[in-house]
Amino acid sequence: MNRLCTQVARNSSWELTGYVVRLRQAIMNLAGNAIKFTDEGSVQILARTERDSGSLSLAIDVIDTGIGISDQAQAKVFEPFAQADTSITRRFGGTGLGLAISKQLAEAMGGRIDLQSTLGKGTTFTIVLPLGDESAIEMFDPTHEASNQSDSGGQQQDVQTLPPCRILVADDGSPNRKLMKVVLGKAGADVVTVENGQLALDAALNESFDIVLMDMQMPVMDGYNATRRLREAGYTRPILALTANAMQGDQEKCLAAGCSGFLTKPIQIDRLLATLTTELEALELSGERVECHPTTTSHPKSAPKPPTQTTQTTQTVGETASSGTSLQIDSSAVRCRYSLEDPDFLEIAEDFVRALKERLPSMKASLRDKEFDELAADAHWLKGVSGSAGYDAFVDPSIALNASAASCDFAQCQADLTRIESLANRIDLVGQLTGNSPRMKLSDTSPNSKSEKEMLTSSLPMDDPDYREIVIDFAGRVGGKLEEMEAALAADDWETLAQLAHWLKGTSGTVGFEQFRNPTVALETMSNAMNRPAAMIAIQDLRSLSARLAVPV
């Protein structure tokens, strides 16, 4: 386990304007490199100032406790496509470009990168940038500036945040737990998640929480029993029920078990935050708030807005909420409601897809064996998890399956489960990540389309011969890497395919071709899922991009 820490030295009260993009990229390259080679310990980023004869310089240290670099290897670590040795490449992967780019970025800003390393103990890379005569640099009080920014921005804040608080989330759906962790964490809460009622009972009785969010249908011990036992033990803090059942009788059942309130799935983020705010204000007035120590998530710059919804161009034709054995299956893509540009929500979507893939065989087995109670429980799970993960297309079919299973209607269950399988087979993570519909991509082969005509140019400054050389080298390697990808796919070598996708993702971004990012992320994801059709489409997209590379001369 390792930690990433950032720190600004106390004597560094300045605001730097200028080469922001270059500096950010250099720091990110160094930090990414440090994290990769640090299995235990920490990675620290320290910003400070250095004074020398009236001149001021900005120094940014990236300090790790990783494997270190030998004296012999230090002489070549800044060379393009160089690694300390071949065993490093085999063990850690990577391209050897990040340090070369960082060095050239620092030099382009008039600075340098220093290196200190001890083999087996760690490494420090330091970016040093000259700022000029100290007397000409305006210093400021960062505390005063932060106060002014807070005062001026207070009236513009229209996104709800939570005061520092501790919240326990009990839910057997991994996508739900991750969604809660992301949303509530960004809103200012310290969030602990567990996957069943027994763990929730133990955590609530042994730790201090302001609020418990309790899913009512969980394995080991359900939310009803966990809530009852907490109340019997004298637990007085709010327990809010989370359930996919929205009927009046269900709400009364939750309240009878001892719940303070009731929230339905799919989780509506605005309503969730509003309800939590009301409960926390009531606790504040009663003096029962848990004392929260500041954490990395306790004081966010801004709370999350409800996740951006993607354009819904993939409505399923002929699939409605009504039960009926007549099926109209189409081939339109099924996409997540959330923007998958956010890595947190991408992880939630991937987790849902993985969980659904694992759950479907047991649902089919339950139907085959006419175990309708098991099938109804799975349908209930799917209703809550799918909507929370942003896959609303599954909500109505899972409601229908739940009702059919409850009435032990085998034929109708079979029809409803077929609809769900159809939706699952049409989940289009690749298309959403790349911004294209794979089906459209396969049929749209016109060489005169706008996307085919536009050439891709690197964002690095091509007037610099060192940058040009790196881009030319990358362009010369892409074709071979794509051939290796196609060979790995043909051999079902998914591990190698994922590694190649990861290599191209890192290398293309480093050399300034961000257009490769989404297809390579998609390819890596689909390789891990062993999804051959989707992987083929992702490779085709990468072929199209590589054909449009503008190679400098």
- Helix and strand content put the structural class at alpha/beta
Find the count of extended strands (DSSP E, 2+ residues): 10
What percent of the residues sit in helical stretches (DSSP H or I)?
40-55%
Radius of gyration: 27 Å
Distance, first to last CA: 45 Å
Taking the sheet with the most strands, its summary is: 5 strands, mixed
Number of helix segments?
Answer: 21
Strand content: 5-15%
* Order of strands in the sheet with most strands: 1-2-3-5-4
Could you characterize the architecture of this molecule?
The protein has 553 residues and is an alpha/beta fold. It has 21 helices and 10 strands. The chain has helices spanning 20-36, 71-74, 86-92, 98-108, 142-153, 174-187, 197-206, 223-232, 248-257, 269-286, 343-368, 372-388, 395-406, 410-425, 429-434, 438-443, 450-453, 465-490, 494-510, 517-528, 532-547, and strands at 2-8, 41-52, 55-64, 112-118, 122-133, 165-170, 189-194, 211-215, 239-243, 261-264. The chain is globular. The two termini are 45 Å apart.
